[in-house]
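quick one if you have a minute, typing this from the bus. theres a chain ive been looking at and ive put its sequence and its fold in C-alpha coordinate form underneath. please have a look and point out which stretches look like helix strand or loop to you. anything you notice is useful, everything is just below.

***
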Amino acid sequence: MDGPVGFIGLGIMGRPMAANLSKQIEVVGFDVDEKRFEGLKNVRRAASIAEVAKSCSVVLLSLPGTAIVESVTAGPGGLFETLQPGSLIVDVSTTMPTASQKLAKLATAKSLQYADAPVSGGEAGATDASLSVMVGASQSTFDRALPYLSAIGRSVVRLGDVGAGGVAKLVNNMIVGAEFAVIAEGFALAARFGLDAESLFEAIRGGWAASKVLEVSAPAMIKQDYRPGGTVDLIEKDIGYARTLATEKRVPVPVTAITHEIYVAAQARGEGKSAQPVIIKMWEDLLDLQVGGEKQT
Protein backbone atom coordinates (compact mmCIF):
# COMPACT_ATOMS: atom_id res chain seq x y z
CA MET A 1 0.00 0.00 0.00
CA ASP A 2 1.14 3.50 -0.84
CA GLY A 3 0.58 5.88 2.04
CA PRO A 4 -0.93 7.91 3.33
CA VAL A 5 -4.45 6.86 2.35
CA GLY A 6 -7.42 9.22 2.53
CA PHE A 7 -10.74 8.31 4.11
CA ILE A 8 -13.79 10.55 3.69
CA GLY A 9 -16.84 9.79 5.83
CA LEU A 10 -16.40 8.56 9.40
CA GLY A 11 -19.91 7.47 10.30
CA ILE A 12 -21.11 4.16 11.73
CA MET A 13 -19.26 2.17 9.05
CA GLY A 14 -16.51 4.56 7.99
CA ARG A 15 -15.02 5.18 11.41
CA PRO A 16 -14.16 1.52 12.19
CA MET A 17 -12.97 0.95 8.61
CA ALA A 18 -10.61 3.91 8.89
CA ALA A 19 -9.43 2.63 12.27
CA ASN A 20 -8.57 -0.77 10.78
CA LEU A 21 -6.72 0.82 7.88
CA SER A 22 -4.75 2.96 10.32
CA LYS A 23 -3.31 -0.19 11.90
CA GLN A 24 -1.42 -0.81 8.66
CA ILE A 25 -0.91 2.59 7.04
CA GLU A 26 -1.16 6.29 7.78
CA VAL A 27 -4.74 7.54 7.30
CA VAL A 28 -5.83 11.10 6.59
CA GLY A 29 -9.52 11.48 7.37
CA PHE A 30 -12.23 14.02 6.68
CA ASP A 31 -15.76 14.31 8.00
CA VAL A 32 -18.04 17.31 8.35
CA ASP A 33 -18.67 16.24 11.98
CA GLU A 34 -15.43 16.83 13.87
CA LYS A 35 -16.75 14.85 16.86
CA ARG A 36 -16.30 11.66 14.89
CA PHE A 37 -12.54 12.00 15.34
CA GLU A 38 -12.82 11.84 19.13
CA GLY A 39 -11.01 8.75 20.40
CA LEU A 40 -10.00 7.75 16.88
CA LYS A 41 -6.30 7.03 17.15
CA ASN A 42 -3.81 7.13 14.28
CA VAL A 43 -6.15 8.97 11.90
CA ARG A 44 -4.98 12.49 11.07
CA ARG A 45 -7.84 14.93 10.63
CA ALA A 46 -7.89 16.96 7.44
CA ALA A 47 -9.68 20.30 7.33
CA SER A 48 -11.12 19.76 3.85
CA ILE A 49 -11.51 17.35 0.95
CA ALA A 50 -8.79 19.29 -0.85
CA GLU A 51 -6.37 18.65 2.01
CA VAL A 52 -7.04 14.92 1.76
CA ALA A 53 -6.43 15.06 -1.98
CA LYS A 54 -3.15 16.93 -1.60
CA SER A 55 -1.87 14.36 0.89
CA CYS A 56 -3.04 11.11 -0.69
CA SER A 57 -3.02 9.24 -3.99
CA VAL A 58 -5.64 6.73 -2.78
CA VAL A 59 -8.93 7.87 -1.21
CA LEU A 60 -11.76 5.75 0.17
CA LEU A 61 -15.31 7.10 0.51
CA SER A 62 -17.91 5.92 3.04
CA LEU A 63 -20.85 8.26 2.54
CA PRO A 64 -24.62 8.03 3.19
CA GLY A 65 -26.01 8.44 -0.31
CA THR A 66 -25.45 8.85 -4.03
CA ALA A 67 -25.91 12.63 -4.04
CA ILE A 68 -23.18 13.10 -1.44
CA VAL A 69 -20.81 10.78 -3.31
CA GLU A 70 -21.41 12.83 -6.46
CA SER A 71 -20.78 16.08 -4.58
CA VAL A 72 -17.56 14.85 -2.94
CA THR A 73 -16.16 13.54 -6.21
CA ALA A 74 -17.55 15.66 -9.05
CA GLY A 75 -18.74 18.77 -7.21
CA PRO A 76 -16.87 22.08 -6.84
CA GLY A 77 -13.66 21.49 -4.92
CA GLY A 78 -14.24 17.76 -5.10
CA LEU A 79 -11.78 14.96 -5.65
CA PHE A 80 -11.91 15.12 -9.44
CA GLU A 81 -10.62 18.68 -9.26
CA THR A 82 -8.07 18.21 -6.50
CA LEU A 83 -6.49 14.76 -6.86
CA GLN A 84 -3.32 14.31 -8.86
CA PRO A 85 -3.60 12.31 -12.13
CA GLY A 86 -3.09 8.62 -11.53
CA SER A 87 -4.82 8.67 -8.14
CA LEU A 88 -7.39 6.07 -7.10
CA ILE A 89 -10.87 6.61 -5.64
CA VAL A 90 -12.57 3.64 -3.96
CA ASP A 91 -16.22 4.18 -3.06
CA VAL A 92 -17.22 1.77 -0.28
CA SER A 93 -20.61 3.48 0.09
CA THR A 94 -23.82 2.04 -1.35
CA THR A 95 -24.23 4.16 -4.48
CA MET A 96 -26.61 3.78 -7.42
CA PRO A 97 -24.71 1.63 -9.95
CA THR A 98 -25.60 3.90 -12.87
CA ALA A 99 -24.23 6.88 -10.94
CA SER A 100 -21.01 4.96 -10.23
CA GLN A 101 -20.62 4.27 -13.95
CA LYS A 102 -21.03 7.97 -14.78
CA LEU A 103 -18.54 8.96 -12.09
CA ALA A 104 -16.05 6.39 -13.38
CA LYS A 105 -16.22 7.93 -16.86
CA LEU A 106 -15.60 11.39 -15.41
CA ALA A 107 -12.71 10.01 -13.37
CA THR A 108 -11.14 8.43 -16.45
CA ALA A 109 -11.33 11.78 -18.25
CA LYS A 110 -9.31 13.22 -15.35
CA SER A 111 -6.75 10.37 -15.56
CA LEU A 112 -8.03 8.91 -12.29
CA GLN A 113 -8.89 5.31 -11.39
CA TYR A 114 -12.29 4.55 -9.87
CA ALA A 115 -13.82 1.54 -8.13
CA ASP A 116 -17.19 0.95 -6.51
CA ALA A 117 -16.73 -1.41 -3.59
CA PRO A 118 -19.77 -1.46 -1.28
CA VAL A 119 -19.58 -3.55 1.85
CA SER A 120 -21.86 -5.83 3.86
CA GLY A 121 -21.51 -6.97 7.43
CA GLY A 122 -22.75 -4.04 9.45
CA GLU A 123 -20.97 -2.16 12.20
CA ALA A 124 -19.71 -5.39 13.77
CA GLY A 125 -18.12 -6.47 10.49
CA ALA A 126 -16.57 -3.04 10.02
CA THR A 127 -15.16 -3.16 13.54
CA ASP A 128 -13.52 -6.56 13.27
CA ALA A 129 -12.55 -6.17 9.58
CA SER A 130 -14.70 -9.10 8.50
CA LEU A 131 -16.78 -7.26 5.90
CA SER A 132 -17.77 -8.72 2.55
CA VAL A 133 -16.59 -6.30 -0.14
CA MET A 134 -18.25 -6.37 -3.57
CA VAL A 135 -16.06 -4.65 -6.16
CA GLY A 136 -16.75 -3.18 -9.56
CA ALA A 137 -13.54 -2.11 -11.29
CA SER A 138 -11.15 -2.96 -14.09
CA GLN A 139 -8.77 -5.74 -13.21
CA SER A 140 -5.82 -3.36 -12.86
CA THR A 141 -7.80 -1.01 -10.61
CA PHE A 142 -9.00 -3.94 -8.52
CA ASP A 143 -5.43 -5.16 -8.09
CA ARG A 144 -4.37 -1.72 -6.88
CA ALA A 145 -7.34 -1.41 -4.49
CA LEU A 146 -7.11 -4.95 -3.10
CA PRO A 147 -4.56 -4.33 -0.31
CA TYR A 148 -6.66 -1.48 1.10
CA LEU A 149 -9.90 -3.44 0.86
CA SER A 150 -8.29 -6.50 2.43
CA ALA A 151 -7.51 -4.35 5.46
CA ILE A 152 -11.22 -3.77 6.05
CA GLY A 153 -12.81 -6.98 4.77
CA ARG A 154 -12.46 -10.74 4.95
CA SER A 155 -14.01 -11.44 1.55
CA VAL A 156 -13.11 -9.14 -1.36
CA VAL A 157 -14.61 -10.20 -4.70
CA ARG A 158 -14.45 -8.48 -8.09
CA LEU A 159 -17.83 -8.81 -9.84
CA GLY A 160 -16.96 -6.94 -13.04
CA ASP A 161 -16.43 -3.37 -14.14
CA VAL A 162 -17.62 -0.28 -12.24
CA GLY A 163 -21.27 -0.59 -11.23
CA ALA A 164 -21.13 -4.35 -10.73
CA GLY A 165 -20.21 -3.99 -7.07
CA GLY A 166 -23.19 -1.74 -6.49
CA VAL A 167 -25.58 -4.17 -8.18
CA ALA A 168 -24.32 -6.99 -5.95
CA LYS A 169 -24.83 -4.83 -2.86
CA LEU A 170 -28.39 -3.96 -3.89
CA VAL A 171 -29.19 -7.64 -4.40
CA ASN A 172 -27.64 -8.33 -1.00
CA ASN A 173 -29.86 -5.74 0.66
CA MET A 174 -32.98 -6.85 -1.21
CA ILE A 175 -32.48 -10.23 0.47
CA VAL A 176 -31.50 -8.80 3.85
CA GLY A 177 -34.40 -6.35 3.90
CA ALA A 178 -36.94 -9.04 3.06
CA GLU A 179 -35.50 -11.28 5.79
CA PHE A 180 -35.89 -8.60 8.47
CA ALA A 181 -39.49 -8.08 7.37
CA VAL A 182 -40.56 -11.73 7.26
CA ILE A 183 -38.86 -12.41 10.61
CA ALA A 184 -40.87 -9.59 12.17
CA GLU A 185 -44.20 -10.79 10.82
CA GLY A 186 -43.38 -14.40 11.68
CA PHE A 187 -42.53 -13.57 15.29
CA ALA A 188 -45.69 -11.45 15.51
CA LEU A 189 -47.77 -14.42 14.33
CA ALA A 190 -46.10 -16.63 16.93
CA ALA A 191 -46.72 -14.09 19.68
CA ARG A 192 -50.41 -13.89 18.71
CA PHE A 193 -50.56 -17.65 19.19
CA GLY A 194 -48.88 -17.35 22.58
CA LEU A 195 -45.38 -18.58 21.74
CA ASP A 196 -42.42 -17.22 23.68
CA ALA A 197 -40.07 -15.36 21.33
CA GLU A 198 -36.87 -16.67 22.90
CA SER A 199 -38.07 -20.27 22.70
CA LEU A 200 -39.10 -19.77 19.09
CA PHE A 201 -35.66 -18.39 18.26
CA GLU A 202 -33.94 -21.41 19.81
CA ALA A 203 -36.30 -23.75 17.96
CA ILE A 204 -35.71 -22.36 14.46
CA ARG A 205 -32.16 -21.05 14.50
CA GLY A 206 -30.67 -24.49 13.79
CA GLY A 207 -32.92 -25.18 10.81
CA TRP A 208 -33.26 -23.70 7.35
CA ALA A 209 -34.42 -20.38 8.76
CA ALA A 210 -30.94 -19.88 10.20
CA SER A 211 -29.22 -16.73 8.95
CA LYS A 212 -27.12 -13.81 10.09
CA VAL A 213 -30.23 -11.65 9.89
CA LEU A 214 -32.11 -13.97 12.26
CA GLU A 215 -29.15 -13.93 14.65
CA VAL A 216 -29.33 -10.13 14.76
CA SER A 217 -33.08 -9.62 14.53
CA ALA A 218 -34.45 -12.12 17.05
CA PRO A 219 -32.27 -11.02 20.01
CA ALA A 220 -33.04 -7.38 19.21
CA MET A 221 -36.79 -8.05 19.28
CA ILE A 222 -36.51 -10.18 22.42
CA LYS A 223 -34.58 -7.47 24.26
CA GLN A 224 -36.46 -4.61 22.57
CA ASP A 225 -33.03 -3.14 21.81
CA TYR A 226 -33.02 -1.20 18.55
CA ARG A 227 -29.78 0.73 18.78
CA PRO A 228 -28.02 0.94 15.38
CA GLY A 229 -25.75 -0.74 13.66
CA GLY A 230 -27.61 -0.48 10.47
CA THR A 231 -30.77 1.63 10.40
CA VAL A 232 -34.21 1.69 8.85
CA ASP A 233 -33.15 4.80 6.90
CA LEU A 234 -30.18 3.02 5.33
CA ILE A 235 -32.02 -0.15 4.35
CA GLU A 236 -34.90 1.91 2.94
CA LYS A 237 -32.43 3.91 0.84
CA ASP A 238 -30.72 0.82 -0.54
CA ILE A 239 -33.94 -1.04 -1.34
CA GLY A 240 -35.23 2.14 -2.96
CA TYR A 241 -32.13 2.15 -5.16
CA ALA A 242 -32.84 -1.48 -6.05
CA ARG A 243 -36.40 -0.63 -7.07
CA THR A 244 -35.16 2.26 -9.21
CA LEU A 245 -32.59 0.06 -10.95
CA ALA A 246 -35.18 -2.67 -11.48
CA THR A 247 -37.53 -0.17 -13.10
CA GLU A 248 -34.76 1.08 -15.37
CA LYS A 249 -33.93 -2.48 -16.42
CA ARG A 250 -37.60 -3.58 -16.62
CA VAL A 251 -37.17 -6.35 -14.02
CA PRO A 252 -40.24 -7.06 -11.84
CA VAL A 253 -39.41 -7.09 -8.11
CA PRO A 254 -42.74 -7.44 -6.28
CA VAL A 255 -41.32 -8.84 -3.04
CA THR A 256 -38.78 -6.01 -2.91
CA ALA A 257 -41.51 -3.45 -3.56
CA ILE A 258 -43.62 -4.70 -0.65
CA THR A 259 -40.56 -4.88 1.59
CA HIS A 260 -39.62 -1.31 0.71
CA GLU A 261 -43.05 -0.05 1.76
CA ILE A 262 -42.60 -1.63 5.20
CA TYR A 263 -39.49 0.46 5.81
CA VAL A 264 -41.17 3.58 4.45
CA ALA A 265 -43.97 2.96 6.95
CA ALA A 266 -41.43 2.60 9.76
CA GLN A 267 -39.87 5.91 8.73
CA ALA A 268 -43.31 7.53 8.84
CA ARG A 269 -43.56 6.35 12.46
CA GLY A 270 -40.29 8.13 13.27
CA GLU A 271 -38.20 4.94 13.48
CA GLY A 272 -35.72 5.80 10.72
CA LYS A 273 -32.69 6.13 12.99
CA SER A 274 -33.31 2.84 14.78
CA ALA A 275 -31.98 -0.59 13.80
CA GLN A 276 -33.98 -2.58 11.26
CA PRO A 277 -35.67 -5.01 13.69
CA VAL A 278 -37.61 -2.03 15.10
CA ILE A 279 -40.20 -2.71 12.38
CA ILE A 280 -41.71 -5.29 14.76
CA LYS A 281 -43.28 -2.33 16.59
CA MET A 282 -45.75 -1.93 13.74
CA TRP A 283 -47.12 -5.43 14.33
CA GLU A 284 -47.02 -4.97 18.10
CA ASP A 285 -49.12 -1.83 17.87
CA LEU A 286 -51.50 -3.25 15.27
CA LEU A 287 -52.11 -6.46 17.22
CA ASP A 288 -51.78 -5.01 20.75
CA LEU A 289 -49.12 -7.50 21.74
CA GLN A 290 -45.46 -7.54 22.68
CA VAL A 291 -42.96 -9.91 21.11
CA GLY A 292 -40.06 -9.41 23.51
CA GLY A 293 -39.42 -8.31 27.07
CA GLU A 294 -40.26 -5.01 28.66
CA LYS A 295 -39.95 -2.13 26.24
CA GLN A 296 -37.15 0.34 26.84
CA THR A 297 -38.19 3.80 27.98
